[in-house]
Amino acid sequence: MMETRSNKKDNANIGVTDSTAGATPDKDTVGGEEDSVILAELRKLRQEHTEAAIDNKNALVRLETNLKEIMERTASLEQRTGDVEE
């Protein structure tokens, strides 16, 4: 009788192990896939950030250039206005 019980337990455990082995995906595999997706998204966001920072820097350079030109024009106009008033 003991053998019958142990055989039933062994068969039951084998059946459970076999049925669950292929039915559910491995957590490491799923986690690895999710990590890959997250890393790809982070790379994309980093690239977008880098491009945006370059665009901002270029815009600031243009702004500074335009401000210098405006200041030069204003100084020139003030000089001309002063000359006309005298």
UniProtKB/TrEMBL annotation:
Residues 1-32 are annotated as: Disordered. Residues 1-11 have a biased composition (Basic and acidic residues). It comes from Scomber scombrus (Atlantic mackerel). The lineage of its organism: Eukaryota, Metazoa, Chordata, Craniata, Vertebrata. This is Uncharacterized protein.
